[in-house]
Amino acid sequence: MKNNTWVVLQREYMTRVKKKSFFLMTILLPILLVALMFAPALLMNMGGSAKTYAVVDETGLYADAFSDEKDVFEPVADTALGRAGLREGKYDALLWISAAAAEGNRQTIILYYEKTEPSIEKLNRISASAENKLRMELIGKESGLAPEKYDYISKVQVDVHSQDVKTGERSYTEVKTIVAYALGFLIYMFIFMFGGQIMNGVIEEKSNRIIEVMISSVKPFQLLMGKVLGLVLVSLTQFLLWALLVLVLTVVVGMVAGGGMDAAQATALAEQVTMGTQLADQVSASGMGALPINEIQSTLLEAKEIVDSLHLSTWLTFFLVYFLGGYLLYASLFAAVGSMVENQEDSNQFMLPLTVPLILGIIVIANVLKDPQGPIAFWLSIIPFTSPIVMMARIPFGVPAGELALSIGLLVLGFIGTTWMAARIYRVGILMYGKKGSYKELWKWLRYKA
Amino acid sequence: MNYLLETQAVVKRYGTFTALDHVSIGVPEGSIFGLLGPNGAGKTTLIRIINQITAPDEGTVLLKGEKLSRKHIYQVGYLPEERGLYRNMKVGDQAVYLAQLKGLSRLEATRRLHEWFEKFGIDSWWNKKVSELSKGMQQKIQFVVTVLHRPSLLIFDEPFSGFDPINAQLLKEEILNLRKEGATVIFSTHNMASVEEICDEIALINHSKKILDGKVEDIRRRFSGNVYQLLLRTEEERVERLRSEVDVLECNRRDMPGFFDLKIKVKEGAEEGNALLRTLLDYGEVKDFSEKLPSMNDIFIQTVKKSEENEK
Question: Is B100 contained in some domain?
Fold first, then answer.
């Protein structure tokens, strides 16, 4: 009878892993995530087709101001000519830089368009180009400073690199912030995803009326544990596949990007990179020819350095610990909710106590990132219902071992407690038909004798 | 008496509601035992207790004289009234899974399932999804899964609902067959005709209490109103004379001339039937003569009504 949990577990695992949706999820989710990250930037670059602008420059200042890669700017003698061209379709828009609208450091440019209005991005770009031109002009006129000098001065940059005093490692705080957010969010997402699957499984068994057959051979607790643990294996399988996929993708991308770069070159480049931005500036200043490959390579090397500084293996370990803890804490509660209803629509009212702490965890992450050692961060990373999310966001910034131990210890106690409680609700709930669960009913169920 | 299953003064309460109130039944080994009662009487609760889905608050349940415990799970097969299967699983996988939960190895389960499926002519369903099958087809699979692990106690709750007459007959034969092979069957149903047909003993439960139990034959005789049903070939005026001699409850003339269906009540007593028959011989030709036993249906209604009046 003991191994009935094992029989249930096997079924739960096999039916889920064999599903098409599991396969799709495994392949598509990483692609989707990557796409979500890069798509906006990509779309921005591709945005819009090349346009031809007629430029009527009455000030004579902006002749070479607009040198866009794609768009064509054609000087035109007067607005009448420009308008005519606009109507004929020769131009897409007309820029009128009126001398009357110029006053000191101010200039208004009017853009005439027909039918299609230019995007805010186009306007901003034109504005930026014109401002730049006007700035250079005024510097020459008002201060006598050579424009090249001004350009040099205006591009000053001060970087603050945080560094661990013991290990001497550089810490990439910005990157950590993003990763912390991502990790918290992933835990949140996975708890909902796998918790929801358990709940639906329970609802299916109840509404299919297979449950009565099942529990004449399996104790409700065994059935519950078989389901919960079966999904643990499913989730671990999924993680493993994702890890493999990421590894393969990384290797492939690395081979494509780093093609032709031998080891000696790599070390040389690494040295260059560590020498800092000064060199990089020189590189970017000196001709465009050999740049792209070098740039990608140095980016990759820097990425590698960042990744190294993140201590990925530590994170992954804690990610697994907190995912498992959080999942086990919530999974049986999701099952209990499933046992109280006969269809998914009814589950919403009972989901509230589960969703509130999870959403709270996500909301406070922003706060936690600002002050990773503050009271909110501390308490919510100790309380088991929010700790899986909040602690994940704290870990990149370093958490005292004592707090970690307390948090994990409470999480373990927490999931034992919720499982015990959920099991008591579950064993009554799965056999209740026609009677809608209510919080008052729940209290009664908790006290029924087994 | 050699009981396979015995419940002794079993009580089950849900909060303030008493679902079973000191219910004692004894199911003789190798019998088919009808568990009867109106909806909500407590039958399902009793069945769940026997299946160890819930535990009684008071009283004991004995299986083969031993107190019921987890190890007996494999000796019981249960076909609930509300039954279902995983819709997206294949028939074979599903059946093997349920059999494994009853302690069979994967290999043994597969072997026995193929035997049963072939017997029922459904072996071609093995790789079909459950959702592709009709309700009646699903019921067949559920029946097979219930009996597959050869339990010594089988519990069928409304087994014939959802079956067409041909398959219901097939099922009935299989149930009788299982008894012949030594299984004991508890049979819960509202279909009183099938109770008369296949049950050896019954217990009737109403409002959480057992109100009647015993052998079907004994009960029917106990409820007998000492009425005989007969077919007499005679003439009109002789029937009239007969009326003055005995207590004729009903008299109907058949389409055929000279044939009369009669219902006659006699006094309580061992030889009253014979006395009536002797009297009848003087009034015509007796073509048919039998004691009219009440149907289980009548007994059910009568007993339940009476118990409800008593409660008031």
Answer: no
